[in-house]
Amino acid sequence: MRELKKERLRAAQLAEDANLDVAVDLLFGPILNRWLQRTGPLTPEYAGQVVETALGGLRPREP
Q1: Where are the alpha helices (DSSP H) in the chain?
Q2: What is the pLDDT along the chain (63 residues), one digit of tens a residue?
Protein backbone atom coordinates (compact mmCIF):
# COMPACT_ATOMS: atom_id res chain seq x y z
CA MET A 1 0.00 0.00 0.00
CA ARG A 2 2.81 2.42 0.86
CA GLU A 3 4.45 1.78 -2.53
CA LEU A 4 1.19 2.62 -4.30
CA LYS A 5 0.99 5.89 -2.39
CA LYS A 6 4.59 6.70 -3.30
CA GLU A 7 3.91 5.91 -6.97
CA ARG A 8 1.00 8.35 -7.00
CA LEU A 9 3.16 11.00 -5.36
CA ARG A 10 5.75 10.65 -8.13
CA ALA A 11 3.09 11.88 -10.56
CA ALA A 12 2.36 14.96 -8.42
CA GLN A 13 5.28 17.03 -9.79
CA LEU A 14 7.22 17.11 -6.54
CA ALA A 15 10.71 18.44 -6.10
CA GLU A 16 13.27 15.94 -7.39
CA ASP A 17 14.87 15.62 -3.97
CA ALA A 18 11.57 15.07 -2.12
CA ASN A 19 11.72 12.04 0.16
CA LEU A 20 8.62 10.01 -0.74
CA ASP A 21 8.57 8.11 2.56
CA VAL A 22 8.39 11.42 4.42
CA ALA A 23 5.79 12.70 1.94
CA VAL A 24 3.50 9.75 2.70
CA ASP A 25 3.87 10.44 6.42
CA LEU A 26 3.15 14.16 5.90
CA LEU A 27 -0.07 13.32 4.10
CA PHE A 28 -1.43 10.56 6.29
CA GLY A 29 -0.05 11.49 9.72
CA PRO A 30 -2.41 14.42 10.40
CA ILE A 31 -5.44 12.52 9.12
CA LEU A 32 -4.66 9.42 11.18
CA ASN A 33 -3.94 11.55 14.25
CA ARG A 34 -7.27 13.38 13.97
CA TRP A 35 -9.10 10.09 13.52
CA LEU A 36 -7.40 8.32 16.43
CA GLN A 37 -7.50 11.19 18.92
CA ARG A 38 -10.85 12.62 17.82
CA THR A 39 -9.45 16.15 17.99
CA GLY A 40 -11.82 17.47 15.32
CA PRO A 41 -14.05 16.41 12.47
CA LEU A 42 -12.46 14.34 9.74
CA THR A 43 -14.08 15.91 6.69
CA PRO A 44 -13.24 15.95 2.99
CA GLU A 45 -12.43 19.64 3.39
CA TYR A 46 -9.89 18.92 6.14
CA ALA A 47 -8.30 16.12 4.14
CA GLY A 48 -8.08 18.42 1.11
CA GLN A 49 -6.38 21.11 3.19
CA VAL A 50 -3.86 18.58 4.49
CA VAL A 51 -3.08 17.41 0.95
CA GLU A 52 -2.73 20.94 -0.44
CA THR A 53 -0.52 22.04 2.45
CA ALA A 54 1.75 18.99 2.26
CA LEU A 55 2.07 19.01 -1.53
CA GLY A 56 2.66 22.76 -1.51
CA GLY A 57 5.70 22.20 0.67
CA LEU A 58 6.97 19.35 -1.50
CA ARG A 59 6.73 21.05 -4.89
CA PRO A 60 9.82 22.53 -6.50
CA ARG A 61 10.67 26.10 -5.54
CA GLU A 62 11.24 28.71 -8.20
CA PRO A 63 14.63 30.42 -7.91
Answers
A1: 2-10, 20-37, 44-58
A2: 667 666 767 766 778 888 888 888 998 999 999 999 999 999 999 999 999 999 888 888 777
Q: Which residues contact 25 (CB under 8 A, 6 or more apart)?
A: none
Q: pTM, whole model, 2 decimals?
A: 0.74
Q: Are 31 and 50 in contact (CB under 8 A)?
A: yes
- Return the domain boundaries, the chain: 2-58
Give the amino acid at 23.
Answer: A
Long-range contacts of 23-29 (CB under 8 A, 24+ apart): 23/54, 23/58, 26/54, 26/57, 26/58, 27/51, 27/54
